[in-house]
Amino acid sequence: MFSNSVRWKVALAALTCSLGFAGAAAAQTIVVSASGPSARSYPAGKSLAAGSRIVLAAGDTLTVLDSRGTRTLRGPVTTSAAASATTANPSFAALVATQNRRRARTGAIRGAGESAKPSNLWYVNVASEGTVCVTDPAAVGLWRPDMEQAETLTIAPASGGSASAPFLVGQNVATWPASLPIAEGASYVISGGGLTKPTRVRFALLPAAPGDPAGTYAALDAKGCDAQKQLLLGALKSPN
Hints:
The chain is an alpha+beta fold. It has four helices and 14 strands.
């Protein structure tokens, strides 16, 4: 039998180890793009450990995503893959916020050219086809780029039937119809309203919203949620 002192030391060691792993996961840096002589060493999506070195030759350009956002490095340079600081990123926090997403938003009426991107990463962009990642199937919002007109969209599952999603003038977010369940791999066709052609979307479920930009990008990449990856990168783009 172990004494209480030994048990306490073992538990403390296990906790320290687990925290170390968690810190390493949170500190990951993801390669977004690379060009130049060293590009083959940095394929898109590669995860760089916090302690690893980045070595770029003359003519190399490397864009990475870490806890601060995106940053672009240009060779020749040798540097650490770790971000210089792991402070909270307000742009990221706003983009992935899950509170009040069920509330339909209204605002100043503007056309699609002035409001081209969703304000939340988990909205379903009705004008964009492809796989959409969601963290809460019960709180999904439909987002449209143009708020100038009232319109009603029709959403049809592959199994048949349909449901409607109305938008008021000045409203760019509507609630996903409760009669259409969202599950892993479920596909729907969105049509009507101001859409020039039907949009097909497929849902992928994430068990929870990752807590940092790099982890979120990796989760989206694994599920093939390409439009959301680009939205994330655009929102977190850092000045170089």
